[in-house]
């Protein structure tokens, strides 16, 4: 048993370093940018002229539809639509040729899915900052942008850190779905090895242990960041 575990470990670690970790980091980075933009569109209420309000209203509808669509459908289905479905448009649109590499399709799918969920988390954090903070900033002569950047976002960042960390850890585990669109990440490598040594229980347990170790490290980092971000709160001795 140990011979199988030790012999398969280098291949699994290689897949982790080559695909699982980069896929998680890149997808979360783009997903977080998308989440912040979407959350701000849904949170802010511009007071400009009618044209600006109309444009903002259209953007808000687009943001609402985007969040609804990706929170209402399974991630696996989204990956299949992006990787297998979009190239099929060439059957309906003459001259259309849209081939997406598997890794790119996975990044797009994970980023869009993460952005939809994280945007609601960020929006909730922004809404949790008391209105008094806005009023006090306006009294001091701050503009809306200055208030958001210097007053609201720093407070919201501390609030949103735990749930966003959970999103990141969840994304690590969700990358196993990338195996369904031909990416040889850890789970697919374990499947390939199991097909040769006929030890599926052993291989799947080993890859589960690797995911657990990786997520445990991230959990420890999450607790450290939470402690650091809360060190100035009253009553916090850390």
Would you give an account of this structure?
This protein is mostly helical. It has a domain at 22-181: Orthogonal Bundle (MetI-like fold), CATH 1.10.3720.10. The protein has helices spanning 2-43, 50-71, 75-85, 102-128, 131-139, 144-174, 186-197, 200-229. The longest helix is centred in the first third of the chain and has 42 residues, at 2-43. It is flat, with a radius of gyration of 22 Å. The relative contact order is 0.14.
User: Which class best fits the helix and strand makeup?
Assistant: mainly alpha
Instruction: Report the count of strand segments.
Output: 0
Strand content: under 5%
- Low-pLDDT residue spans: none
Summarize the structure.
This protein has eight helices and no strands. It is mainly alpha-helical and 238 residues long.
How would the blueprint of this fold be written?
Blueprint: H1 2-43, H2 50-71, H3 75-85, H4 102-128, H5 131-139, H6 144-174, H7 186-197, H8 200-229
Helix pairs in contact: 1-2, 1-4, 1-7, 1-8, 2-4, 3-4, 4-6, 5-6, 6-8, 7-8
What attributes characterize this protein structure?
238 residues, mainly alpha, MetI-like fold, 8 helices, 77% helix, 0% strand, flat
């Amino acid at each position: 048993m140990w011979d199988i575990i030790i012999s398969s470990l280098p291949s699994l670690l290689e897949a982790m370093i080559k695909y699982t970790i980069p896929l998680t980091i890149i997808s979360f980075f783009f997903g977080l940018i998308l989440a912040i933009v979407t959350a701000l569109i849904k949170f802010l209420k511009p007071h400009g002229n009618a044209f600006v309000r109309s444009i903002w209203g259209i953007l808000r509808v687009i943001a609402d539809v985007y969040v609804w669509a990706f929170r209402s459908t399974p991630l696996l289905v989204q990956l299949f639509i992006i990787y297998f479905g979009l190239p099929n448009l060439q059957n309906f649109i003459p001259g259309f040729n849209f081939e997406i590499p598997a890794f790119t399709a996975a990044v797009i799918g994970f980023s869009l899915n993460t952005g939809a969920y994280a945007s609601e988390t960020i929006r909730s954090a922004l809404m949790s900052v008391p209105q008094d903070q806005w009023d006090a900033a306006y009294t001091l002569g701050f503009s809306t942008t200055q208030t958001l950047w210097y007053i609201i976002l720093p407070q919201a960042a501390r609030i949103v850190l735990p749930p966003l960390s959970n999103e990141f850890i969840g994304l690590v585990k969700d990358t196993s779905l990338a195996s369904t669109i031909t990416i040889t990440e850890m789970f697919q490598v374990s499947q390939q090895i199991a097909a040769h040594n006929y030890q599926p229980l052993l291989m799947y347990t080993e890859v589960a242990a690797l995911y657990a170790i990786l997520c445990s490290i991230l959990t420890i980092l999450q607790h450290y960041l939470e402690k650091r971000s809360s060190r100035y709160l009253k009553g916090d001795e850390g």
